[in-house]
Amino acid sequence: MVEIHLYGNLRRYALDSRPDRESVTRLEPQPEETVGTALKRVGISPDEIYHIFLNGALLSTRNSMAPWLEYQESRVGQELSTPVQAGDRLGLFARDMALLVV
Predict the structure, then answer these.
(1) Which of 12, 50, 67, 95 has the most beta carbons within 10 angstroms of its beta carbon?
(2) Could you give the domains of the chain?
(3) Which residues contact 4 (CB under 8 A, 6 or more apart)?
(4) Using CB atoms within 10 A of its CB, is residue 9 exposed (0-12), middle (13-18) or buried (19+)?
(5) 13: which DSSP letter?
(6) Does residue 48 sit in helix, strand or coil?
(7) Do strands 49-54 and 89-94 pair parallel, antiparallel, or not at all (unpaired)?
């Protein structure tokens, strides 16, 4: 299974979006699954996502401070082609959950 942890406004895509619960969606990965195909299967538009973490590491961000903090800045679609597989964990943060990662 791929676990997709949803934060901020993205919680609405979870089966249980109550604030006192973890908002997690689980998918059985398909052959050649990517971040983009997983998002599409859950129904989340990439435009809604501000930060993407894969297995606890920052994959991409739309944070305008990214170049100064030496983050990998999001380039539309680039992070979406990153492969995911069983056992992976995606952390998706909406714009209302913007954060600095140091």
Answers:
(1) 50
(2) 2-97 (3.10.20.30)
(3) 24, 25, 26, 27, 38, 42, 89, 90, 92
(4) middle
(5) G
(6) helix
(7) antiparallel
